[in-house]
Amino acid sequence: MDALIPRPSREVAPGVVHVPGWLDEAAQARLVEACRGWARPPAGMRRVRLPGGGVMSVRTVCLGWHWEPYRYVRQVDGVPVKAFPEWLAEWGRRALRDAVALSPVLASDAESDAEAYEPDVALVNFYDAEARMGLHQDRDERSRAPVVSFSVGDTGVFRLGNPESRGRPWRDVPLESGDLLVFGGPNRLAFHGVTRIVPGTAPSGIGLVDGGRLNVTLRVTGLS
Ligand SMILES: O=C(O)CCC(=O)C(=O)O
Ligand SMILES: [Fe+2]
């Protein structure tokens, strides 16, 4: 169904590009099905425990490397992390190419060369209706190559802050099913989070029968 109010592709901040509907329904369904497989144990989906004793409300599974706060490791639960598939890296390069075409800032950033983009880690997050993610920076990567983010399922309200602090200014960008968000360049280390999920907004044809939101971020660790 076409949106009543069209959502144009745009650079929401320098080096941050939002492309609504980048994934068509078939691609969304493929991602949901892949996530279903990745979620299974061993090395499956879990709520990450924070060093302060808290537990994250999102459920996470990682590919390529396992993220534990606040570093990347190769094993989880005593077994190797699931592999990062080549098709997902190819999606990442296509996504970055499209983002660079919309952003002069990314186009002039040496770290944002789409042809050379070799993401080696993905964080797959599942949000139920109550899940959120507090403002944070993605800064455990040694590389400053952009983060490529795919969203499917229920809409999530993504809060894009600034690289200096958790405070204002920020702007809220609703990420709907199929949306692409790339953040790099001067906003690679921008604080960001997800303030809420909008239940009941997932399209029916993508295989997320009970709703919820999946977000997959591709990153380059710069580790070996
Ligand atoms: O769910 C999102 O859109 C953002 C996820 C995120 O920030 C992360 O995994 O670090
Ligand atoms: Fe993040």
Give a structural overview.
- The structure is a single chain.
- By secondary structure, the protein is an alpha+beta fold.
- It has one domain: Jelly Rolls (Sandwich), CATH 2.60.120.590.
- Strand 1 and strand 2 form a beta hairpin.
- It is built from 3 helices and 15 strands.
- The strands form 4 sheets. The protein has a 7-stranded antiparallel β-sheet with strand order 1-2-13-10-15-8-3, covered by helices on one side. The chain has a 4-stranded antiparallel β-sheet with strand order 9-14-11-12, with no helix packed on it.
- The protein binds 2-oxoglutaric acid and fe (ii) ion.
- 2-oxoglutaric acid binds next to strand 8, strand 10, strand 11, strand 14 and strand 15.
What keyword list fits this structure?
224 residues, alpha+beta, Jelly Rolls, seven-stranded antiparallel β-sheet, four-stranded antiparallel β-sheet, 31% strand, binds 2-oxoglutaric acid, Alkb, oxidoreductase, metal-binding
**Structural class of the helix and strand makeup?**
alpha+beta
Contiguous uncertain segments of 5+ residues: none
> How many strand elements?
15
From the N-terminal CA to the C-terminal CA, the straight-line distance is 44 Å
Largest sheet: 7 strands, antiparallel
Shape: globular
Question: What spatial order of strands do you see in the largest sheet?
Answer: 1-2-13-10-15-8-3
